[in-house]
User: Which sequence fits this backbone?
């Protein structure tokens, strides 16, 4: 038997599935960046992969390469036999005694230890049509000495910049929108897992920091089932207030307070709740009384709500609650209520008078209500209504519905 035969026989029992997988994974680090054209042109799939004949064929191919590199059980056995055999005149004249035994020369180009070798398979295909059996004769083995020395391939350092590429703005927008939709659709999953509060915080933060598209999507999601998701609207409003005041460190600490987005969010929510046909849930009043800041535009929405005959009763009650709860704006809310006591609409006027009479029973409201009543009673003696009743500050009491 030759060295290749011995090494191949030794490898057959070691070519298990696990060992072959490990060899493939290790060799993947040595593959070039692009597939060589020669490999692509000659490669054909293995027809009988995993059969005993194919395993023996693979073991023989590996045995030939290991023997050529000076490794393997067959090489070591032949080398030991050569060392035991007494030298002859023919051996003295031979420059490489191992070559005469195995038919394979080992030159200085091969490393001396197994840790220095970089074995890269040169097998492009294991198809039975393209690869024949390697000859076992000494002449056939001698031809393996012509295999060029293997060169160790240098490992390229990993660079993140080489592995990534910039993303277009439109693609980034699409990906972020899709991600936001997935968060919205994970409502049941998050509630089951007990992380609903984390989901709510994530959504409100994204909406406050993102462009208009997220705001529209979030608003549409809330209004699809406002009774169930009204807490998201309240959380959104409070988050906008936090950002407007600059309480978060991610914003510029020198940035001036800007309540534009907060005002827009509050008014859009109020306008939607105002148009709801069923007002029994009281969400309009709850949003106004719970809002951290009531802007002038929000007051206009409230006045419009109070002027609606079908909603005047609820509107006046909301105004009364604001008078009791918002101490810093009590005078402004009280003036709005008293202005409605002489509104041209009878239903609106009666509801305002009803609330004013109930407030008059409170000691802290008697003086401003009586002062307002006496001031307007004096106008009854005038030949015509004074211009003060039709000033800009009074026109707000009768705001057109399309404002």
Assistant:
């Amino acid at each position: 038997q030759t060295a290749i035969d011995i090494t191949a026989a030794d490898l057959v029992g070691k070519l298990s599935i696990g060992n072959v997988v490990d060899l493939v994974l290790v060799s993947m680090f040595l593959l070039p960046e692009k597939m060589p054209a020669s490999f692509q042109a000659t490669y054909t799939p293995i027809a009988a992969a995993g059969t005993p004949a194919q395993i023996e064929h693979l073991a023989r191919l590996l045995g030939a390469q290991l023997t050529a590199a000076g490794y393997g059980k067959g090489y070591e056995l032949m080398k030991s036999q050569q060392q035991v055999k007494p030298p002859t005149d023919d051996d003295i004249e031979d420059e490489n005694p191992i070559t005469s035994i195995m038919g394979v020369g080992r030159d200085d180009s091969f490393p001396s230890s197994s840790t220095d070798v970089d074995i890269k398979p040169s097998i492009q295909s294991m198809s039975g049509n393209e690869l024949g059996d390697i000859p076992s004769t000494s002449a056939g083995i001698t031809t393996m000495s012509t295999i060029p020395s293997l060169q160790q391939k240098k490992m390229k350092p990993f660079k993140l910049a080489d592995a990534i590429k910039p993303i277009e703005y439109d693609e980034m927008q699409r990906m972020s929108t899709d991600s936001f939709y997935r968060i919205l659709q994970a409502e049941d999953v998050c509630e089951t897992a007990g992380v609903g509060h984390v989901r709510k915080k994530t959504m409100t933060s994204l909406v406050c920091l993102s462009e208009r598209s997220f705001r529209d999507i979030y608003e549409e999601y809330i209004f699809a089932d406002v009774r169930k998701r009204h807490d998201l609207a309240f959380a959104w409003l409070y988050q906008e207030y936090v950002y407007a005041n600059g309480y978060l460190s991610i914003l510029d600490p020198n940035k001036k307070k800007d309540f534009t987005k907060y005002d827009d969010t509050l008014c859009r929510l109020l306008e939607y709740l105002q148009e709801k046909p069923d007002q029994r849930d009281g969400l309009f009043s709850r949003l106004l009384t719970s809002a951290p800041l009531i802007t002038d535009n929000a007051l206009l929405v409230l006045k419009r709500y109070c002027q609606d005959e079908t909603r005047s009763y609820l509107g006046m009650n909301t105004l009364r609650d604001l008078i009791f709860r918002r101490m810093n704006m009590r005078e402004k809310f009280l003036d709005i209520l008293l202005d409605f006591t002489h509104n041209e609409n009878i239903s609106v006027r009666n509801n305002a008078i009803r609330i004013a009479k109930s407030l008059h029973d409170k000691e802290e409201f008697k003086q401003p209500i009586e002062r307002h009543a006496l001031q307007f009673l004096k106008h009854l003696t005038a030949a015509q209504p004074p211009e003060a009743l039709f000033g800009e500050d009074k026109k707000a009491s009768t705001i057109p519905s399309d404002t």
